[in-house]
Write a structure and sequence with these properties.
Largest sheet: 4 strands, parallel
Strand content: 15-25%
Number of strands: 4
Helix content: 40-55%
Order of helices and strands: EHEHEHEHH
Strand order of the largest sheet: 2-1-3-4
Number of helices: 5
Radius of gyration: 15 Å
Structural class: alpha/beta
Distance between the termini: 14 Å
Length: 165
């Protein structure tokens, strides 16, 4: 029996594209900071990361689709914040983009990480974009931390796992 598991490794087979929604920018900039800090502390060279800004979360899949087809990119990290309002608009956006990211990853064989916060209010978004960095296990306590850092870590693990396979 063989067991495969990825680990955090700076040995990436191509560039990393980070996509950042400008809508709710106070939150998304915090997610970007967390992701970049995780990549850099893991040894990924700054020159291997490209950051792209899009108007909002709904536009993220358009650009992730372009990057995932580009042979220079090994993986994509999409960052955004969709906060519930008075209508069901957030549900439609969240469903559409999550399905598209999953499809892109499955079809391309490259990881497309869902770093989009889907929160009920601004307080939840703030907690998930820069709360206690040490807490990313929902079974232990309330989920705090930085979803950008969590997804950067997961992207590195997935790239390593795919390389090992």
């Amino acid at each position: 029996m063989m067991i495969y598991e990825g680990s955090i490794s700076p040995n990436i087979p191509g560039r990393i594209g980070i996509l950042v929604a400008k809508f709710n920018r106070t939150i998304t900039e915090r997610l970007l900071t967390g992701a970049l800090e995780k990549f850099f502390s893991s040894g990924v060279p700054e020159g291997m990361i490209d950051v792209f800004y899009v108007p909002g979360a709904f536009e993220l899949p358009t650009l992730s689709g372009r990057l995932i087809r580009d042979p220079r990119y090994a993986g994509v990290l999409a960052l955004g914040a969709v906060i519930k309002g008075e209508t069901s608009h957030d549900e439609h956006i969240n469903r559409a983009i999550s399905i598209e990211f999953a499809r892109q990853g499955a079809e391309s064989g490259k990881p497309v990480m869902f770093g989009v916060l889907t929160c009920n209010n601004v307080e939840q978004a703030l907690a998930r974009s820069g709360g206690d960095e040490g807490s990313h296990d929902k079974t232990q306590t309330a989920h705090l931390g930085n979803k950008g850092a969590d997804c950067a870590e997961a992207l590195l693990e997935m790239l390593d796992l795919l390389r090992k396979m």
